[in-house]
Amino acid sequence: MSVEVKIPAVGESISSGVVSVWHKKSGDFVNEGDALFTLETDKVSTEIVAEKAGVLETKATEGQEVKIGEVVATIDDAKAPAEGKKEEKPSEKKKKPETEKKSEEKEPVAAGADRSGPGSPTPAATLSPAVRRIVEEEHVEPEKISGTGKGGRLTKGDVLAAVQERGKTEEKIEAREVPPSVDGRFIRKRMSPLRRKIAAQLVMAQQTAAILTTFNECDMTAVQELRAKSQEAFTKKNRVKLGFMSFFIKASVEALKAVPSINGRIEDDDFIQNNFYDIGVAVGTERGLVVPVVRDADKKSFADLELDIAGFAVKAREGKLKIEDLQGGTFTISNGGVYGSLLSTPILNPPQSGILGMHKIMPRPVAVEGKVEIRPMMYLALSYDHRAVDGKEAVTFLIKVKECIEDPKKLPLDF
Questions:
Q1: Average pLDDT of every residue of the chain
Q2: CATH assignment of 2-76?
Q3: Would you say 278 and 296 are in contact if contact means Cβ atoms under 8 Å apart?
Q4: List 139, 296, 390, 407, catalytic entry
Q5: Domain limits, CATH 2.40.50.100, in the chain
Q6: How confident is the model at residue 14 (pLDDT cuts 50, 70, 90)?
Q7: Active-site pick, 278, 298, 304, 386
Q8: Annotated catalytic, 386?
């Protein structure tokens, strides 16, 4: 009996997506729970798994746009694995005569079999979905990479190290995926659903909100000293490093409490005041910018915040963020400084009324008690919806953030 594989509903308002990569091919035997393909939507990427075991027959190609509910494959659960692909139990392998084992070593490795030892090249069929995605996106040859995982399997670290050693940039890889024009002067390719969604959101934010940006700067000396002093003990205790983002999340919460209107939103003719603090943290990925949300940031410790941020970064890179990870934020923080940005005007994340832009820490001469000193300075930018937030409130917010960063004792330190 054939079971249809349909595109599931993956979130409210999502009506379609793109089959970005098949992890299994037509004719492959799949087990229940095996990852079949990755569905990329305008919000997240989701791995779709097999609900039953059987032989797979695909009906959609990689890169094809599909609608929710559309049948993209079938699984024939009446068929058994093809000869040579059926996995053997350890007990069965032990019972094989020595002569049969020797003959097997001379035969080609069957698809789906894992007979590689530690440090040996890993067959493509044994790759995990996460590793396979990197292999396919970065165009590396897994058989030429020595795996350090269990049984010689490739790990993400193995593949990423090979990509880094190869020294090819993401832009070059993307350019190679699409054939250039006849004269080679330009490349045309369809935008991904996520990139199209980002584009639409940015235009919508500009067209529907009265966006204004105000600036200030903060001296990072105190935070840098506190971070350096506490780093070793913090990392040992929590198994995660103490970064700058947790300080700015805490400072933003204090500022939002002082200026509640920035923690609200306009809905039709009403203003919705949020009395909770779910802070979105912008994360850049190869697919585009996503903003996972740290829930109840006011109630979390510095360690909890850093663990949340680190977890979101991993999930974002692996394309495993869920819809619920991205929904419901009340305020957003974007750190362009990690890319070297000195100053920018961030665009609102609708329907929020404010977004804080962090930037690169630069040593600059500043006046301190009548003397010129070189201090590590960061420009701060607050973009806000002027329909809901007055200029005075925006300035008050930034000054509060500045005060908390320059004097971290004003924050609820718990480390």
A1: 83
A2: 2.40.50.100
A3: yes
A4: 390
A5: 2-76
A6: confident
A7: 386
A8: yes
